[in-house]
């Protein structure tokens, strides 16, 4: 559909505002994705208002503080708030009234039945639609199922505003591609997808993100971008599942999976991921189901995705079984044994415990009668176990040390000092393969790791 003169003028006006940094941006949701997005656009010179339903989050941002320990984010938030380029509010209507661009960064979880829960997205679209005006650009960063941008989002915005998508306002899907601990760096450096409701929407979104992103902007239809985003995380989940199954095979064969993967990855066309005690976070355990759900709704059942999820979800239980096995081999029972769990965050160097495999492990160990103590330098969460103030307190008189998160500090532990404070015949169960097995053996630990069973002399 070719643009009319009035529509061309609206598009040109918004392009000029973007290029001159005069466009006013509203970011809906100030969580793990939303706050960095708002901060980076403010740092690029735009006036940005962040909207969140939680007053505590808004007040934290207004005081110039971020969440957790995301590198560089605290400093940037403080900088742009002090400069007056980033504001925050719980009043969505007021913020949206003056917006030229709206970026949606709300959560899109799944239900207990592993179906998409788009309730937060619907509420956000209703709020935006009520204040939508001609010439605005709406960009979705939240991960969504196939067809959501062109379907649910566009229709909600049209119904609430009485305007036509692609003619009166623009709509694009630009999914986030960042990892905790590297959000600022990856937002700027990584290539980005700009999936448009129509060609003009994609062009405007690419221009907007090009103001911050140094990586390539890849322009496409919004439905392609939706599937591409889900495919990215599903690929990683499937690859990890293969690594985990390979680890289980290696345990049965009494071969170290880390040596196998290192050797196999010398092949130029092979890149096997690393195994571990489970897959966590807001994306990987969820996004494969978003992809699977839409395929099943159209009559196709993706067996490979489902099997991969089953394998990855089984790894926390397998890790607990290794604990039981290791203790048994030293003549101890899991009941009343002290187990120190190091790390409860779902990944290294962050405090995020979303879908953390450690939760399943800790709760299972407690249910088996173990005396469980946890330590994580990035979060106070303990999942019902006792919480230690440092590694030494956690490991003192422990029968077993379980490494559940690969924080850097756990890779650098002095095993000789640890062995001196643990109980006799203590064991290490390495769920993240961060400890050198040879060194652990040398210091007197019995060592079992994912993909490395009991070694015979």
Q: What is the CATH C-level name of the largest domain?
A: Alpha Beta
Helicity, in percent? 40-55%
The biggest beta sheet is recorded as:
8 strands, mixed
The CATH architecture of the largest domain is 3-Layer(aba) Sandwich
Taking all Cα atoms into account, the compactness measure Rg is 25 Å
Q: Would you give an account of this structure?
A:
Helix 2 links the parallel strand 1 (24-28) and strand 2 (47-51). The protein has an 8-stranded mixed sheet with strand order 3-2-1-4-5-6-7-8, sandwiched between helices. Strands 11-10-9-12-13-14 form a 6-stranded parallel sheet. The protein has helices at 5-19, 34-43, 55-62, 73-82, 92-97, 119-131, 149-161, 183-189, 199-210, 222-253, 257-264, 287-297, 303-329, 357-367, 391-395, 408-411, 415-421, 437-442, and strands spanning 24-28, 47-51, 86-89, 101-104, 137-140, 170-173, 192-196, 217-221, 338-342, 371-375, 386-387, 400-403, 427-430, 446-449. It has 457 residues and is an alpha/beta fold.
């Amino acid at each position: 559909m070719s643009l009319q003169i009035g529509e061309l003028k609206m598009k040109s006006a918004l392009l000029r505002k973007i290029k001159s940094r005069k466009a006013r941006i509203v970011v809906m949701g100030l969580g793990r994705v939303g706050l960095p997005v708002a901060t980076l656009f403010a740092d690029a010179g735009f006036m940005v208002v962040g909207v969140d339903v939680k007053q505590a989050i808004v007040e934290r941002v207004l005081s110039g503080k971020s969440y957790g320990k995301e590198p560089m984010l605290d400093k940037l938030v403080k900088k742009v708030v002090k400069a007056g380029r980033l504001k925050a509010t719980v009043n969505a209507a007021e913020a949206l009234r003056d917006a030229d661009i709206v970026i949606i960064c709300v959560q899109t979880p799944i239900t207990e039945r592993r179906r998409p829960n788009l309730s937060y997205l619907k509420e956000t679209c209703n709020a935006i639609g009520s204040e939508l005006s001609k010439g605005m650009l709406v960009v979705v960063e939240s991960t969504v199922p196939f067809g959501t941008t062109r379907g649910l989002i566009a229709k909600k915005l049209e119904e609430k505003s009485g305007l036509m998508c692609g003619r009166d306002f623009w709509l694009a899907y630009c999914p986030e591609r960042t990892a905790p601990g590297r959000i600022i760096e990856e937002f700027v450096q990584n290539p980005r997808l700009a999936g448009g409701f129509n060609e003009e929407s994609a062009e405007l979104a690419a221009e907007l993100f090009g103001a911050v992103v140094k990586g390539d902007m890849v322009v496409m239809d919004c439905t392609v971008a939706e599937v591409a985003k889900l495919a990215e995380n599903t690929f990683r989940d499937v690859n990890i599942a293969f690594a985990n199954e390979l680890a289980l095979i290696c345990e049965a064969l009494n071969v170290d999976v880390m040596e196998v993967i290192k050797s196999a990855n010398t092949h130029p066309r092979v890149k096997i991921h690393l195994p571990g005690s489970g897959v966590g976070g807001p994306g990987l355990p969820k996004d494969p189901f978003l992809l699977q759900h839409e395929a099943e709704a159209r009559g196709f059942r993706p067996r490979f995705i489902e099997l991969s999820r089953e394998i990855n979800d089984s790894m926390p239980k397998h890790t607990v079984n290794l604990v039981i096995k290791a203790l048994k081999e030293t003549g101890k029972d899991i009941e009343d044994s002290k187990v120190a769990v190091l790390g409860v965050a779902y990944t290294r160097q962050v405090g995020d415990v979303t879908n953390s495999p450690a939760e399943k492990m800790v709760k299972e160990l407690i249910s088996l009668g173990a005396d469980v103590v946890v330590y994580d330098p990035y979060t106070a969460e303990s999942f019902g176990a006792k919480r230690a103030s440092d590694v030494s307190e956690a490991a003192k008189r422990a029968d077993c040390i379980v490494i559940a998160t690969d924080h850097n500090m756990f890779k650098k532990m002095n095993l000789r000092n640890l062995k001196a404070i643990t109980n006799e015949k203590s064991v290490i169960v390495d769920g993240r393969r961060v400890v050198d097995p040879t060194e652990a053996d040398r210091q007197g630990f019995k060592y079992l790791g994912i993909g490395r069973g009991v070694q015979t002399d």
